Structures are given as C-alpha cells and as structure tokens.
Amino acid sequence: MTSSKPYQYAKGWVEFYKLKFKVTPDVLIPRPETELLVDCVVDFLNSITSQPVNEQTSIRVLDIGTGSGNIAISLAKNLRLHPKGVKVKIIATDISQKTLKVARQNARLHEVEDEIGFVKSNLLSNVPRSWDSCVIVTNLPYIPSERIPYLDSSVKDFEPLIALDGGEDGFALYRKLFSQISTMQPRGLKPKLLVGEIDYTHGELAAAEALKYFPKAQAEVKTDLAYKQRILKITFS
After folding, report:
1. Yes or no: domain 7-235 corresponds to CATH 3.40.50.150
2. Where in the chain are the domains?
3. Of the chain's two ends, which shows fewer C-beta atoms within 10 Å, N or C?
4. pTM of the model
C-alpha cells in the first residue's frame, strides 16, 4: 500500500497559532499541541514584565530546534505587542541548514526577520554564552527509536527522521540540552525558564531528569487538551 503524503506538504503550508507557515519535507509539520509552548512563554514573560521597565529592557528567548520557525515567529508576533514596549531578542537554532532556510522564509513572510537571529547549531553549541535571564523553548525530537517503525506512514515516510527520533528512550536530546545548560551556566547562560514538548510517556522521566541536572529548579509537567502529558516546564531560581 502506497503511503499518503501529508496534505500539509501537498498544500505547502499549515496554520499554527493563527498564522500561516510554509512547510516542506525538510521541516516537521507543526502540531496544535505545540501551541501550548507559545502560551507558556507568553504567559511567563507577561508576568515578569508586569513590573516597571525602561526603554532598554529586552526579553531574550532561545528557540532550540526551530524547524519551520513556528514557535519563534509566533512569539515575535505576539511579544511585539507588549503594552510596555519591551523589546524581544530571539535566537532560533537548528542543526539543519535546509530547515533554517524554510524558517527564514517564514520570518520574512511574517515581517519579523529583524527580530530573530537564525543560527545553525547543535542545540546550544553556537549560541551566545552570556544570555542572562533568558527563556529557553524547545520542541526537540522525543519519539523513542523503537517506536519510529510503528508511526503512521504519513509521518515516518515523509517527515524528517532527524526531527522525530529522540534516541533509545526518546529523551536523549533533552539530556544533552540539559547538560549543555548546566555546563554553560557558570559562564553566563542563566535561564529563568525552560519549556519543552515531551512524549506522553515521559512525564515522570522528564521531571526527574530536570531535577537531576538542575536540583535547585522547580519542574512540572503540564497536559495537553487530550489530557496527555505534553509540556515540561522548568523554572529556575
């Protein structure tokens, strides 16, 4: 039986956070549940910037594994409307140059290309080391390798494997990211918040691993609209 090409690739675009994004087989198709990451970041930043600010105040966001740029661009579009005029500085990284090309096209489409710096990077390897009080948001690959062959053919046969496969237990890239953050913290990278999308089986594992690397932080897991564990939220002291 021939696999069915996802209709989003056939159309060439998908809606995410009420915006249209170009998608090609070089990028993962954004899912509705990923909108929860944007909600978490917007709510957090609105809360911490409710205090008096001046013209020099800026919000610093790192979007790790940006894909089509849907998270970074949605944040840029929403945070530019901040009532206090707080500036947003966003760096969006991806390991694939082809993926970054699509993300840049989407940024131009939504006229936020001046607000997002796109960087080819293996997680945090090529990002600035001195981002104090930043927010990290990510939708890293999280499907355990052994489950890949059992995914729907429209996913496993068409979407990029590099954006799906999270290693043996599905959490390998998150551990690598946590390790990079913990190594970089003494040298200036001091996140206030990290939110990441996780597999529905990863709730306890994700919280435990977060506290293993960041024992002074608070870790909680939020559910999506289907009541599945979906979002890991780490708040740093």
Report:
1. yes
2. 7-235
3. N
4. 0.93
